[in-house]
Amino acid sequence: MKVKIDIDKDIVHVSLDGRMHLKESMHLKSIILDYFEQGYRVYCIEMSSLQYIDSSGLGVLVGLQKKAIKLGGRIKVSNVEGTVKELFELTKLDLIF
Predict the structure, then answer these.
(1) What CATH number does residue 65 fall under?
(2) pLDDT digits (tens, 9 = 90+) for 54-86
(3) Which domain holds residue 48?
């Protein structure tokens, strides 16, 4: 999975491309945690090119959302499509992101 980061003012824009399995989700978690340490609290994760996400990826996103909220921020996902969208809807995660 490719991860592209752009920062616009205080918002970290994260674009995901490919498939997110355990290894990739841990990599994403590490990246986001580094930005938390730098003081960033608001994230927009763009998923139009994300073809697949497994339970570890969903778990990482939930954990990061909890951390963001605890620190006064939030994580928003956008352009969730296809089977990834179906999984978000099935697990009701579309309601928290």
Answers:
(1) 3.30.750.24
(2) 999 999 999 999 999 999 999 999 999 999 999
(3) 2-95
